[in-house]
Design a protein that fits this description.
Shape: globular
Distance between the termini: 11 Å
Radius of gyration: 20 Å
Number of domains: 2
Mean pLDDT: 94
Number of helices: 10
Largest sheet: 7 strands, mixed
CATH topology of the largest domain: Quinone Oxidoreductase, Chain A, domain 1
Low-confidence stretches: none
CATH superfamily of the largest domain: Medium-chain alcohol dehydrogenases, catalytic domain
Helix content: 25-40%
Structural class: alpha/beta
Strand content: 15-25%
Oligomer: single chain
């Protein structure tokens, strides 16, 4: 079977295709024929050689997005069978309940080979059957951005119809955050550096938009749009550098969801951590700042059921074929996309 390995990244991106033997499932495992995957910002970081403290071997297979069908099962597997259409989260040990940091030790595309491969052996307990209404391409958008935004807005954020949800940027997490907010009846404000993108985001469901390039003091504009109140839930998927602005834009008792911000472009100079001069707002507004790390299998199941019940479709900017992986990476790094990029595997 064919896979892509990240290669010798010492001089930059070195992704290359290789042949490997077809995997054989062990006890409790299944083999997924990967039909679709996709690129997230964290995948670009992995392809540059590391993720946090994890240094990648040159043979690492990247990409955590996945959707496919089962072509073989090992002994003891009863929850799926050959022919089932499935997906799973890359933190496969988080099935339900509270997250524990030790679960990050088993992470597809980081500590384990990912899904930029024709076949992958996976733990059957983590798999979720796909409804017929979701295509492989649509399902492959959900594991990282869709589930992260679900956790931030629905689970940890506990959004309600009276809330204002603010998402930063026009990436997949932001777009999914908008979709989950609108599903719950909440109002959604989105930021972007492009008026054209803001117009498109409003077509997709956003109520209001703020151009942070033409309005550098964008928290003031958020306050104006909310009659001085601010946003009840803020999805900060840009990073610590925007925490000051999030504190300023938040409503009293607001919840700031701090989501891992891996860079899309890796040739920029590293920035010093900001000095949080607006930190008193955290106390004066009685704010909650919470880290969000994807979601559990139970959350993922709830997400898929909600999509079917409410007829919600993922926003896919573009679908690339297997032979066009390099073009997909270039397009991802261009920053032009709205929503998700998908790679069709087999």
């Amino acid at each position: 079977m064919k896979v892509f390995e990240i290669g010798d990244y010492s001089q930059g991106l070195a992704l290359h295709a290789v042949e490997r033997p077809e995997p054989v499932p062990g006890h409790g495992e299944a083999v997924m024929r990967v039909r679709a995957t996709g690129i997230n910002a964290r995948d670009l970081t992995i392809m540059h050689g590391s993720l946090g403290k994890t240094v990648m071997p040159h043979t690492r297979v990247p990409l955590s997005d996945n959707a496919g069908d089962i072509i073989a099962v090992g002994a003891g597997v009863e929850n799926v069978r050959v022919g089932d259409r499935v997906t799973m989260s890359h933190y496969w040990q988080w099935l339900d309940g509270d997250w524990h940091a030790s679960m990050s030790e088993k992470d597809y595309a980081a500590t384990l080979d990912g899904f930029l491969a024709e076949q992958v052996v996976v733990p059957a307990a983590a798999l979720i059957r796909l409804p017929d209404s979701l295509s492989y391409e649509e399902a492959s958008t959900l594991q990282s951005p869709g589930l992260t935004a679900w956790n931030a807005v629905v689970e940890a954020g506990a959004a309600k119809a009276s809330d204002t949800v603010l998402t930063l940027g026009s990436g997949a997490v932001s777009v999914f955050g908008m979709q989950w907010a609108k599903m719950l009846g909440a109002r959604c404000i989105m930021t972007s550096s492009s008026d054209a993108k803001l117009a498109r985001l409003k077509e997709l469901g956003a109520d209001l938009g703020v151009n942070y390039r033409t309005s550098p003091d964008w928290p003031a504009e958020v306050l104006e749009l909310t009659d001085g109140e601010g946003a009840d839930i803020i999805l900060n998927n840009v990073g610590l550098g925007e925490m000051e602005n999030c504190l300023m834009a938040a409503a009293s008792n607001g919840r700031i969801m701090h989501i891992g911000a891996n860079p899309v472009v890796h040739n920029q100079e590293p920035q010093e951590p900001p000095v949080l001069t607006k930190l008193p707002n955290l106390i004066l507004k009685n704010l909650t700042v919470r880290g969000i790390i994807v979601g559990s299998r139970r959350m993922f199941t709830d997400l898929i059921r909600a999509m079917v019940r409410n007829d919600i479709r993922p926003v896919i900017d573009r679908v690339f074929d297997w032979d066009d992986v390099y073009d997909a990476i270039d397009y991802m790094q261009s920053g032009e996309k709205i929503g998700k990029l998908v790679i069709r595997v087999t």
